[in-house]
Structure formats: C-alpha cells, structure tokens
From TrEMBL:
InterPro entries: Class_I_gatase-like, Peptidase_S51, Peptidase_S51_cyanophycinase. This is Cyanophycinase. It comes from Fictibacillus phosphorivorans. Pfam families: Peptidase_S51 (PF03575). Gene3D superfamilies: 3.40.50.880. Belongs to the peptidase S51 family.
Amino acid sequence: MNKKWMAATLSFALGLSLSTTSVSFANDPRDIKGNLMIAGGALGSSNKAVFNEFIQLAGGKEKAKIGIVPAASSSLKSSQSFKKDLVAYGVSAEQIEIVPLANRDFSGTPEDESKWRKNANSEQIAKEIEGLSAIWFVGGDQLRITDTLVKPNGDQTKALEAIWKMYHEGGVIGGTSAGAAIMSDVMIAGGDSLGGLNNEFVKKDKRGTDGEIEPVYLERGLGFFKYGIVDQHFDERARLGRLVMTALKEKASGQYAYGVDEDTALVVNNKEKRVKVVGRSGVSVVDVSKAKVTGSKRAQFQDVYLSHLVSGDQLNVATKEFMISDHKDVTNGYEYYEFKPLDATGVFTSYGRLKEYLSFSLVDNATTNEVKGYLYDSAGNGFQLTFRKTENTKGYWGYKDGQKDDYSFTNVAFDVEPKKVSFSENKDAFSAYKPSEFTAPVIDRTKPVKGKLLIAGGSLGSTNADVFKKFIDLSKQKENSKVGIIPAASSSLKSSELFKKDLVSYGMKADNIEILPLSVTNYKGTSEDESQWADLNKNNEELARKVEKLDAIWFVGGDQTQITASLLNKDGTNSIVLDAIWDTYRNGAVLGGTSAGAAIMSDVMIAGGGSYDTLASGFTQTYDGMLQQEGGPGYLERGLGFFEFGIVDQHFDNKARLGRLIAVSNEKGDHNKLSYGIDEDTALVVYNEQKKAEVVGRGGVTLVDLSKQAKSGLGQSQYKNIKLSWINQGDALDLATKEISINEKKASTTGYEYSDHKVPPHSGVLSAHGVLNRFISYNLIDNAGTANVKSYSFNNGKGFELNFRKTAETEGYWGYTDGQKDDYSFVNVSLDITPVFVKKD
C-alpha cells in the first residue's frame, strides 16, 4: 500500500530546525578518503555508466569486494538482482556478498530475517564489513536501514562503525532510492511537494491518512554525504517542493540540496570536494541561501535558485563552481526556440516535466524570461510557481545518445506564492473554435502490401538496440539489405549520416546504405545546393529504378512538410520516385521513419499545433514552420498514407500531444479506427499482411478510441467517453479487431492494486508521475483508492477539465523491466473533456 504520513502539523517558522535530525555521525569530511554513489531509484540493469562507475570505485572487476545491505527491502529479490547485475558487468559472484542486516522477516524465504537485526552488533559481521571495498544499500524503506544500523539511543552499531571505517579508509558507499535517502544527515523519510509547500512537517511515522497531501517526515540519516540534503526519485515523483521546504527549515549554512532523478547517480569524490552526475537523467541542485521568505504558515518565498546537471557535469562543493560537460554549448544569446510557452498546468503541457519544461520553454527560448506553473489539491488550494531567468542564469545544450537534446542549466530563480484556483463549467469558452478545412487524400489501396512499417516517435537513441535490430530484421536480406535514407525533413545531412553510422554499428554494410538525393533544403556545410534535389530527382526514372531495388527505406526527422514537398508533385499527385517507394513497399520492403518520418505515415499528416491550442482554437490553414510544432492551432496536410489503420502522432509523451490527436481524429479520422500517439525512443511496428502491430523501444504507444464518444451541447471542445489504452514493449495489437494482447510477463492489477490513496489533480511540473501514461498508471490503474483522476489545462481564464475514469472495461497490467523498474500497460480508461472557466485568487 502507498505510505502516507499523518501527524499533527508543526506550525513553526521556516527558520526553525528539527534538532533531532541535525546530529551527524561524521567527523571532518577532509578525513574521508572514500567515495559515494547516490542513485535516485529505478536503476536499470542496462545502465552501464552507473554500474561501471561503481565497480571502478570499488577497486575494479578483479579487486572489488562488495557487500549488499538488504535492510530497506521486503525481500531478498532486489539484493539478488543487484548481485546478478554486478556479475553481468564482470565482477565474480565470489567477490559479492549479501550482508545479513535487516529488521524484519523477508517474504519468500524459510529464514526469519528479523533476527538479523542483532547482527548489527556482531563483531564478526563488523570485521567482514571492514574487509570490503564497497557497500551497497538497496531500495525500499529508508527507516528500516536506520532502524537496523542505529541503536535506540542514537549511537552507532558495530556494523555502522565498520561501514564508516571502510568509508574513511577509501571504500565506496552506494545506494539507490531508500539507499540514497539515508546518505545525508537530514533524511527525508516521506512526504510530497504539496505537503512541503503547505508547511506540513511531521516528527513521527503514523501511516494511514486518507488525504491527498502527504506531510513531509524528517528523520536522522547516516550522514555519509557531508555537503547538503539528498532527495531521490526526484523528477518522476516531482519532489522539488518538499526538498526546497526541507532545505529552508534546516538552513544548512552554505550548503546546497540535491534531488537525484531515477536511473541516475550523484558520484561524490570527498578528496577533491567534487560531485559529478552519471546516468540517464540528472540531478537538481537547490540553493536557498538567498531566499526571501515572506510567509510561515504556507510556502511564500522568492529567489530560491535551481540548477540542473546531467551526465558529465560536475560541481565543486567547496567553491560552488559548476563545471558543465564540454560537449555542450552555451544557449545564452543563441537560443533555438522563439515560441510563447503556455503555463505548466497539466497533462497538456508540452515538455511538462520540470527539467524539460525549464530547458525548452525558458532557458533555450529567446521569447520569454519567465514561466509559471501550479500545484494544488482537489479543492483548488495550492500555489503558483514562477521560474525566472536572471543575470546569473545560464543554459547549455548538446546532443546525447545520437541526436537527443541534452540540457543543463544553472541559477534559474524559483518563486512560490499561495494561490486558490477554482473551476466552473463554461459551455461558451471556445465558441471561436475553427474546424479544419483540410480534405484527406484518397489513397489507392487496391493492391496488397507485403511490406512492414517501423514508425518511431522521435528522439531515437543510438543505443536503442531493440529498435535498430528490429528495423534490420524486418528488411528482406537483414544485414545484407540495401537501405535508402531520405534526408528531406532535416536541415542538414548530419542526421542521415548518423543513422547510417548507427546501422553499420548494428551489423549492416556501409556500401549497402545510400543517402538518397531528395530534399527542398540547402544543407549547411556542403558545397552543393540540395534545395534543387527534389525538382531534379523526384521524377527521375533512374532514381526510381534504384528505389525499387531497395529492401528498406528510412525517413529522418525534422519538418514533415519538407518530406511531402520532396515526393509529391505540385498538383498533389505522386512523383515517379514516390510511386517507386510504394512499389517496393508493396513487394515486401520495410519503410521506417522517426519524428517527421513518422508523421508522414498516415493519410492525414499532423504538421503543427499544440494540445491545448488545437482543442481550444481548432485549426489553421497556414504554416509558419518548425515553431508551429511547439504550439498554436492545429495544421494538417496530406500524408503519404503508408499506414492505413488510423492517424499517427509522434513525440507524444514529451510534447504532450493527446489533445491535438483527439481533435484531429475527431474531425478527420475514421471513428471506427484507433489513433496512435507514439512516444519518443519508441516504435510501432506494423505487419500489414497479418494486420498486426507490436511496440518496440523505451516508451509506449497511446491508443485513442473515439468509437463510443458522446457529444453534448457544450460545443466543439467537449468530449465524453474517449477510450485510452497504453501499450509498450512486448504488447501487441490486432489492427483489424482492435484487440490488445499484453505481454505475458505482466500481471493484472485489477483487484490487486498496490496503492490505496486519494490523488490531487495533475496540475503541472510538480505533479508526481508527470507524463500522461505514468500519471494514469500509478494514480488510477494501480490505485484502489480512487475511481477517477483529474487534470486541468488552462490559459487566460479558461481551459479544460480532463477526467480520467475507470469503468468495467478498464484493465491494468504491471511487471518489472530492465532490473526492477515498474512497467505498466492499461486498456480502456475513459476520458471526459469539459470546457471550464478558471479563477485564480
């Protein structure tokens, strides 16, 4: 069950410290020769960077002697899994031991491990620990770790003394989730951002509250990390509010507070007084030293400073100097974006998680110096969050894992003030909605198609082996296939050259891969004028014959309108080369594409628009280029129609495109077919002859079903009974019957829900489990405590209420993937969308 912490609220001023948490076990940190690895939770078995770093710090594959402390967990499974992972990375099993330290009986074992608590004062166990080069604390409940290793009077047990001795002498201490929470003197044992900002702190562990707000529960940590307060699961569970308020209360002079994201580690070098980031996400660094606090009952402050570091970035904790990885360029004065971002108000917010929202919408955006967000409960009681650029704000951008955007930023100002938000139904809110005047093309489907499709949602990582290998396996001759890459969507040849390089790295022959001369853009850094390619080549018979001999064709990302411009004649008819693509596709070739290369796959091509703006304003007949992909009314053009089973949208999770896909599908889709929102780094694989599809990659595919929707008198922007499903790797779909087959490794959550609690609305970047599928999975599907969850998206006094509901048809499924990461699928969640009037007090 989900843990809630209930006790009397402490109504003390922000400056008052909880003295019980401020005692430290540590001596002068200059005496510590060892290192720390603080992982934010959900550490994937495939996270090579983190595992290799830990092994190296422990002495290397040959010399490492690693002890795993299972105390936080409810079973030995996570400890055994971590040991298995270490062995997979080259450490022998004989070099790894599970140290018998726990305070409770584990499930699934004949032994009563609660007796292990006495081992904490065993001379033998202490001696064994002193002989280790590394200790790892697995995740679970951090209180079990401290209860096991700290005596009732607050003194250290012999085991803890031994761990400290090993650490002082050069050993490494690591931990994930709960194993990260125990690292600092102040240990955050529970609570959420709403609890923190409401200044609800508790001193005792009392579980079972039925409220939406989880008060922040502070306890004494083990103090290995001497440079501030640590929090974990930071991005996924949106814990900025609780970390800021904890830092304000504890007033650690001259120290930062650190929020470590999932699948990421903060590596601490005590000798050099440096920390660095390793892993797949990042670490938020909070500075409250300049904060101006103007309220005590609830959060009201200005000038808290927020920085975000990602893999390769470092911080000198003594001088407070940030050292950003040299593969990134400064964005100040060279901002890429020029769009007006909407406030972060719910699941329709593009880049709706904290790091992404600030990176794209503020730091790398020349049009704004300030963005706002909200956080509130079901009664509307909450806070307005303001994030500001200042003269000290700096942004940094580069690529990672192929061509994924990689951002860091420093010193974004963060202000909070109490705000009451109220909503009332408003049937006239969007009376100016403009229907689309676009007419969908008629595609000749009389000839059968033997080929397959691989439709990737964008930001395809070079390390995404599942997607690349699937594309290769689908082509006729696999590694020996002939592949054509169409560069038309991009502004340079770089993405085409990179895709070729990636295919070669997965076993294909470079001589069999060709970049086809199709484009309407003059590329940077070349002597040729590629803008002439389309006119010269799209009706070239020789190029068409070459295309007909290909086994696979790939469309790179960029601007989808440039793909269609490169392959369609000005009168809208197919060019000779496009006909050749169709012929090779019908004869069995695989067609693939990412981002823009996915958008062109269906008959109706979504070329622009944001979720909120398309639902609110409707559609436009004009297109202002790539910036329209960041917001504004919807814009449609003719697609190439290779995918005949519905409408496709891409970058679905990161750009929050549910609203625009619903609006487009309602107006221009066949309501008896599904519509498909494909996440980044993920592909929908289509087998045309079998009329089947499967999901491959790191995200999932949202399926939108409008077949049972009911319209009422509330105008164009009101919907009822939309059915949403979300499937991911291992799940499959019958495209003819719409029947979904869930990966057999997942178990049904229905009747076996893990959580049982009330849920506040998804209100912006500080809402836990921020992307659509995670919000629904954790808070609705796997939660017995509620039958519906809500989100509100609004702008200028009006907006939408989104009500996600369980029905008799709703099913949820859960399993583990990539180690012990939660892996959900769900089918038939109902969604109602109602226009509302919004008031803020």
